[in-house]
Each structure stands twice: as C-alpha cells, then as structure tokens.
Design brief:
By secondary structure, the protein is α/β, with parallel strands linked by helices. It is built from twelve helices and 29 strands. It has two domains: about 290 residues, Alpha-Beta Complex (Spore Coat Polysaccharide Biosynthesis Protein SpsA, Chain A); about 120 residues, UDP N-Acetylglucosamine Acyltransferase, domain 1 (3 Solenoid).
Length: about 450
C-alpha cells in the first residue's frame, strides 16, 4: 500500500491540490437588519426563518458545502444569539474532517481602535483579519452576504478566478435598467476584466455606456443589458489584507473597496447564470417565500444533487384534516384542521384551527407545542393558544414565531395601508407583519 493510498481522504495529495481547499468563506451576518424589521427585532437577519424549515443563513452555508468549500466563518454582531445557536447545533463536521462552520463575533481587543462593533462590510472583515492569518494554507477568501437566495457553485468561480490571474473576482449577474438602484453596476470587458464600478446609481446616466452584449451575458441576458454585483467577492488573501490594512478609512466593500481595487488590482467578473434574489427586505422576503409555493417556482429547493441544509428537528409528520390546500409549502410538525390555505408557506409546528382562510401569507410557526396544562393556563390568563385560532382570515401577511392569534381575527389590511407601526403589528409595503411572541385577542381586525 502506497503512502497516499493509506492516508485519510481529507489529507490525500490530490485533495490538497484541489483549488477549493485553498479558499476560506466569510459570510457577513452582523448588520442591524433594519430593512427586515420587525422580523429582526430579536434576531439577526440571517437567523430569520425562511421557506418553513430553513433560516436565511442556511442558503450561503449550503452553497459553500455543496461547492466543497468547507471552511466557513460567519461574522456576527447584532442580535446574534439565535444565529449562533443555530450554527452551532446544525453544522457539525466529524473529528476526521478538517472543515468547519464557525462564528466570528465582534470582540474587544487590546489593540487600539481594533475591537468593538464594525462600521461596514469591509470593516467587519478587517476586524477578522487576525483570525484569517491563523489559517496558513489559505490563498483566497470569498466574502458573501448572508441574506440572498441563490444556488451557486463556488468551485467554478474559484477556477475562473485562478485561471484569469485576477486579484479580485466579483460575482455578477445581468440586470435591467429599472433595477440599477438595487445594485453596484460595473463595466466589464469581453475578457472579464472590470474597468468601472458605480454603487447603486439612482439613474442610468452614470452608466449609460456600460451596456453589454448578449454574447457576453450568455443566455441569462433576457433583455438585461447591464451587469450588477451580487455582493460576492473573491480576493487573493494578500490583496485583501493589503487593501484593508493600508486603507483603514474604507468601511464598505461596494462604496469604497471595490472601486479602489479596480484602480490598483486586476478585478474580473464571474457571471452567475441562474436565479438570484436579495431577500433582505420585507417585500422581497415575502415574495420569495410565496413564489416558492407556486407550481413551477423559478427557484427550486428540490434539486436532488444540490440540497440545502438546516437543523434536524425530529418533528412528527404534518397532519392535515378536512383541509383544502392550493400551492402550499407545509413544514414539519404542522397541524391543519378544516381550513382553506392558498399560496402560502406554513412553518414548523404551526397549528391552524377550524374555519380559517389563509392566503398569500407566511406563517413562520412555533418553537414548541403546548400541553393540556399550558392550554388550561391560557384560559386562566385569558390569552389564545399558540397558533391560529378558529375562523380567522389572514391575507398578504407574515406571522412570526410563537404568535397567539385569537378566534375570529382578521388580518387583511382592507384599507390598503402601505406603512404603519403599532405595538402588535407593523405594515411594511402593504404587508402586515405580526412580530414574534405577539398576542392578538379574539375578534381583532387589522
């Protein structure tokens, strides 16, 4: 038996030479999440539940694992307790595996001006540089957001980055003119080199000459002639350390670091030729969930060779009694009795009682089931049981975890209010959001 044949798989020579093993992933999860409030009132944005069984952070972590990118740091800051708990309980590699999914929390240090909360995406990575340097065989670092829905093979991006000789490679995708204010827009040449970048232009005027041919954008063009940044950046580690430590005044990748790198380094674009959506706002989060429940969604969670991972909960199967369902995602452990549910996502342990109508809504579910003793105590306290009470109507809404919706409640926003905020609910872009642990008494109309 040769030496190489006798080695464990994770230290064999061919495995060490796989370029993906020289890459470290940094997932940004530390922002305040104001665009997704009130779902972020007590948790960070990547910790928000998504599509019933998952949390948003599961999307980028699963993309890494499916790409063979098994060394992942998640940078956390605000409201990080539930995110930390989810990562620790979910992503465990065995002791013979050299991979990890670990947390880098904001921390105080002895060095002046080095510790504390970060002030932007680049500043967050800068404060983590010392931990990156501890991993000696890392040659490339990929920085990504923690609030996007997409499926991407980072192995392909790594190969393109190395083959091009770039110092920085941006994940990019075709965008149309009306979406320009949502993206950093760049000018990319036929050889992939990026020569210009404008962060979220308010109009097309600054980038009018940066339209691109369908040949460059491949079949993903579909009438989209501009190129936008996905907020996914691959750096040679030496370039990343140099720019972040030499330019400490630069706090944000999109506004400052990337334009600077275009002037000093070789920056290339890697075109993502598939679905991508920012789910960091109430509107986009709601829309993405509802689209997943349709008969033929644009994004498919059921890809057999590319699964998305989350915490194993060992819940019982869902129970559906005398209920009419149309385009619905039912998560583990749900109980539905004699109700109508249409175009909705029903989260874990969600209980929907008799006579309810649920349409175009996301019910995130519950962290627990109630016992008979719990329900007796609820009667004494005169509060509803956890879940949706009898004869409720809920349309175009998001109901967060552990909410107690009383009997005969109507959450319909019939007046078409665009934005409002109360102690018991918020309306954001016309969508009613009931925050976690909220009690809505019998007969309430929203």
């Amino acid at each position: 038996m040769g030496v190489e044949e006798g080695m464990p798989p994770h230290v064999r020579k061919d495995n060490r030479e796989d370029p993906i093993n020289s890459v470290l992933a940094l997932i940004l999860g530390g922002g305040k999440g104001t665009r997704l409030y009130p779902l972020t009132r007590g948790r960070s944005k990547p910790a928000v539940p998504f599509c019933g069984n998952y949390r948003i952070i599961d999307i980028p972590i699963s993309n890494c694992i499916n790409s063979g990118l098994n060394r992942v740091f998640v940078l956390t800051q605000y409201n990080s307790a539930s995110l930390n708990r989810h990562i620790i309980q979910t992503y465990k590699f065995d002791v013979f595996h050299d991979g990890f999914v670990d947390i880098l929390a904001s921390e105080q240090t002895m060095e002046a001006n080095e510790g504390g909360f970060s002030e932007g995406t680049a500043d967050a990575v800068r404060k983590s540089i010392k931990h990156l340097r501890d991993i000696r065989d890392i040659k490339h670092v990929i920085v990504m957001a923690g609030d996007q829905l997409y499926r991407m093979n980072f192995r392909d991006m790594t190969a393109a980055h190395i083959d091009s000789g770039a110092d920085v490679t941006l994940g990019v995708l075709p965008v149309c003119e009306e979406d320009l204010p949502r993206f950093g827009i760049l000018n990319m040449h036929e050889d992939g080199r990026v020569s210009g970048f404008v962060e979220k232009p308010k109009s097309a005027e600054p980038v009018r000459s940066w339209t691109h041919s369908s040949e460059l954008l491949k079949h993903s063009c579909r009438g989209k002639s501009y190129i936008g940044s996905m907020g996914i950046y691959m750096f040679n580690i030496d370039a990343l350390v140099e720019v972040l430590m030499d330019k400490k005044e630069m706090l944000d990748f999109g506004r400052e670091v990337i334009p600077y790198c275009i002037e000093k380094y070789r920056v290339n674009g890697f075109i993502h030729d598939d679905y991508w959506e920012d789910i960091g706002t109430i509107r986009s989060y709601h829309r993405a969930n509802i689209e997943l429940a349709q008969e033929r969604p644009v994004f498919n969670f059921y890809e057999p060779c590319y699964p998305f991972f989350s915490m194993p909960r060992f819940l019982p199967p869902s129970k559906v009694v005398s209920t009419r369902l149309e385009n619905v995602i039912l998560s583990d452990g749900t109980i539905l009795e004699d109700c109508d549910v249409k175009s909705s996502v029903i989260g874990i342990r969600c209980v929907i009682r008799k006579g309810c109508t649920i349409e175009n809504s996301v019910l995130i579910g519950a962290d627990f089931y109630e016992t008979d003793e719990d329900r007796y105590r609820n009667r004494v306290l005169e509060i509803p049981d956890v879940g949706i009470g009898r004869d409720c109507v809920i349309r175009n809404a998001i109901v967060d975890k552990n909410c107690r919706i009383g009997n005969g409640v109507r959450i319909v926003n019939e007046r078409g209010i665009k934005n409002a905020s109360t102690d018991r609910y918020s309306i954001v872009d016309g969508i009613v959001v009931v925050p976690k642990n909220t009690v809505i008494p019998d007969g309430t109309e929203i």
